[in-house]
Write a structure and sequence with these properties.
Layout (H helix, E strand, L loop, with lengths): L1 H11 L2 H59 L3 H30 L2 H11 L1 H5 L7 E2 L2 E2 L2 H17 L5 E2 L16 H11 L1 E2 L3 H10 L2 H13 L13 H6 L5 H31 L11 E5 L21 E5 H29 L3 H18 L12 H5 L2 H6 L6 H25 L5
Antiparallel strand pairs: 1-2, 3-4, 5-6
Protein name: ABC transporter permease
Keywords: Membrane, Transmembrane, Transmembrane helix
Organism: Fervidibacillus albus
C-alpha cells in the first residue's frame, strides 16, 4: 500500500500533468459558454423572425384595408369583400406572429409545443398520408412519428426543449431522413439542436465522442507509470531494482495508481458541464425523452435486400436519467479498457506520444470502419449503441449495450493479465 501511495504522490507532483488537466477543464468550460452563446443567438433570431412576420402581416393588412376602401368607392362590393377577408386574415396572422414572438421571448414552451402539435394534427389523424416536406422533398414518416411522440412527452411532463433554428415544428432528425442537395443543408440547419441546460449539453457532448476523447487524454496523462521511467533519461524503475520489492507489488502500484487518476479525471470532466451550468441556465430535466430505435430485422434472403421501413419500423423513448446511468457505467468500463490497452503498449514502446497515437488511431479506425458485434471499438460511440443506431443501420441486433459492456470488460481482463505476465516475467528493472 505504501508503494501505491508513493506512485500516486509522484503523479500529483507532475506540473505538466496539472497544466494539461486545467487546459482540458478550461476547454470544456469555454465550449459550453460558446454553445450557450450560439443557442441564445438562435433564439434571438427566432424572435426577430416572428417580429418581422408580425410587421409584414400588419403592413399587408393595411394595404388590404386601403384596397378595400378603393373598391367600395368604385362600387365593386365583391372586390371589397375579398379585400376585407384578406385584411382579416393578415390581421390574424400578425397577431399570431406577435403572440409567438412573446412566447419565444418569455420561453413559454408550453404554448409553442401546443402549436407544434396542432401543426402535426393532420399526420396524427392519418399517419399513412404525409404532406410534410422541406422544399420539394418529403419528411420521412418515421421522423414525423418520432417527432410527434417526442413533443407529446415534452407537453405531458412540462419539459423545456432544445433550441432549434426554426419557428415552426422542431423536428427530431432520425436516420430515416433521406434528403439531398440544398434541402439537406436546410434540414440540417433547422434540426440542429442547442442544449443550454447542463444535462442537455452533456447529452450532446456524448454524441460528439466526448467520452473516448476524454479517456484518451486521461490515459495519456496518467498511464505512463512504466514508459516515463524506463527511458534512457529517467531511471525510475532502476530505483525499485535496488529495493526489496516484488514485481507483483510494483505492477499493482503502477497500474492501479494510473487507473485511479484516469477514472477521477474522466468523471471530473463529465461533471464539469453540469457544475458550470448551475451558474447560467441550470441543469434541465432528466425526464427528457431520448429516441431509441427498435430496428429492422435482417432480410432472410440476404443482406443485399435489407432495407429500413419508415412506416413499419418501431421505436421507443427512454428518459435522460436512464441514458446517463448507462453512460456512467459504460464510462468505467471504457476507462479500464483503454487504460489497460495503453498500459500494455507502454511495456513495448517507451514513447508516450507514439503510444497515444497508436491507441487513438486504433480506436477511431475500429469505430468508424469495422462496426461488428465483437469488435470492441464498435462500442466507443456509446450514444449510437444506447440508441441502437448502429445496430439498426447495420441490421445487426447483436450490437447492443450489454454485449459491449461484457466484451470490453473481458478483453480488459485479458489485456491486464498479459501486461501483468510480461511485467513480472519478461521485463527487467535494472
Amino acid at each position: 500500500m505504501n508503494t501505491f501511495r508513493f506512485e500516486c504522490k509522484k503523479i500529483r507532483k507532475k506540473k505538466t500533468t496539472w497544466l494539461a488537466f486545467f487546459i482540458t477543464l478550461i476547454g470544456i468550460i469555454g465550449f459550453y459558454l460558446f454553445h450557450l452563446s450560439a443557442a441564445e443567438n438562435v433564439r434571438q433570431q427566432n424572435i426577430a423572425w416572428k417580429d418581422y412576420l408580425s410587421q409584414m402581416f400588419a403592413s399587408n393588412a393595411e394595404t388590404a384595408a386601403l384596397d378595400k376602401k378603393k373598391a367600395e368607392e368604385a362600387g365593386d362590393m365583391e372586390k371589397a369583400e375579398e379585400f376585407h377577408n384578406m385584411m382579416v386574415s393578415f390581421q390574424k396572422s400578425s397577431e399570431n406572429a406577435k403572440q409567438d414572438k412573446e412566447y419565444f421571448a418569455n420561453e413559454d414552451w408550453a404554448h409553442l409545443i401546443e402549436r407544434e402539435l396542432r401543426n402535426l394534427e393532420a399526420f396524427k389523424e392519418d399517419p399513412n398520408i404525409s404532406s410534410y416536406a422541406i422544399e420539394d422533398q418529403l419528411i420521412s414518416v418515421f421522423t414525423l412519428r418520432a417527432t410527434l411522440e417526442e413533443r407529446q412527452r415534452l407537453q405531458k411532463y412540462g419539459i423545456a426543449p432544445f433550441i432549434q433554428n426554426t419557428t415552426g415544428t422542431n423536428y427530431l432528425p432520425t436516420i430515416y431522413d433521406d434528403f439531398s442537395g440544398i434541402t439537406l443543408e436546410e434540414w440540417e440547419k433547422m434540426t440542429k439542436r442547442y442544449g443550454r441546460f447542463g444535462f442537455y449539453f452533456l447529452y450532446q457532448l456524448i454524441q460528439l465522442f466526448f467520452l473516448p476523447i476524454i479517456v484518451l487524454i486521461g490515459v495519456f496523462l496518467f498511464g505512463n507509470g512504466i514508459s516515463s521511467e524506463a527511458g534512457k533519461k529517467k531511471k525510475g524503475l532502476h530505483f525499485y531494482a535496488t529495493l526489496p520489492f516484488s514485481k507483483e507489488r510494483l505492477f499493482f502500484a503502477k497500474y492501479a495508481s494510473g487507473l485511479l487518476y484516469t477514472l477521477g479525471f474522466t468523471f471530473i470532466m463529465i461533471l464539469t458541464p453540469l457544475v458550470i451550468s448551475l451558474f447560467f441556465k441550470g441543469l434541465g430535466s432528466l425526464k427528457y425523452p431520448v429516441l431509441v430505435y427498435d430496428g429492422s430485422e435482417p432480410n432472410p434472403y440476404g443482406s443485399q435486400y435489407n432495407a429500413l421501413d419508415p412506416e413499419k419500423d418501431t421505436f421507443h423513448f427512454i428518459e435522460l436519467q436512464d441514458y446517463f446511468l448507462k453512460v456512467l457505467f459504460f464510462s468505467i468500463i471504457l476507462v479500464i479498457f483503454l487504460y489497460s490497452f495503453y498500459f500494455l503498449l507502454s511495456l513495448f514502446i517507451k514513447n508516450p506520444g507514439i503510444n497515444i497515437i497508436l491507441l487513438g488511431s486504433m480506436t477511431f479506425v475500429g469505430m468508424k470502419f469495422f462496426p461488428k458485434a465483437y469488435n470492441p471499438f464498435t462500442y466507443m460511440d456509446i450514444h449510437k449503441i444506447i440508441t441502437r443506431e448502429i445496430a439498426t443501420i447495420q441490421f445487426n441486433p447483436s450490437i447492443e449495450y450489454q454485449t459491449g459492456i461484457i466484451l470490453l470488460f473481458v478483453i480488459s481482463l485479458i489485456i491486464t493479465f498479459i501486461s501483468y505476465w510480461l511485467f513480472t516475467h519478461r521485463m527487467r528493472l535494472s
